[in-house]
Amino acid sequence: MAGRHFDEWNIGDKITHEIRRTVTEADNLFFTVMTHNPQPLHLDVEAAKASEFGQILVNGTYTFALMVGLSVADTTLGTLVANLGYDKLVMPKPVFLGDTLHATSEVAALRQSKSRPDTGIVTFVHEATNQRGEVVCRCERSALLKKSAA
């Protein structure tokens, strides 16, 4: 199991996730179609060319999901009870086809669960950057994690 238990985290712990992902046309197309998002900026090359971006814009909810996904192996894999919420989601720069994204996670808060003594809540700040070092997505994620058996 790669994820850490609640009691293995400290406020300020920061991880640079090794897994990176280059966003492909298929990623964007499949995600956009699967989520029934008809936005022409994601699907229509001609409409996207005529926009201020001049090219296809990657679906923002894909960017968000990829950022969280890149973090899972190092943070909550095998220790997660439930994600409790996502806050302060921002996307300061666009993502385009061919961009390579990588992510970091930092622990912003820790709290014992009041109703479940075998768990605790970790608040992570996840951040995704592109190959140019530009932040393309950031959010806080509150996760209910198991405590270690020790």
TrEMBL record:
Domain of life: Bacteria
Domain (MaoC-like): residue spans on this chain: 11-123
Database matches in InterPro entries: HotDog_dom_sf (IPR029069), MaoC-like_dom (IPR002539), MCH/BMMD (IPR052342)
Gene3D superfamilies for the chain: Hotdog Thioesterase
TM region(s), chain numbering: none
PANTHER family: BETA-METHYLMALYL-COA DEHYDRATASE, MONOAMINE OXIDASE-RELATED
Name by which UniProt lists this protein: MaoC family dehydratase
Species this protein is from: Qipengyuania marisflavi
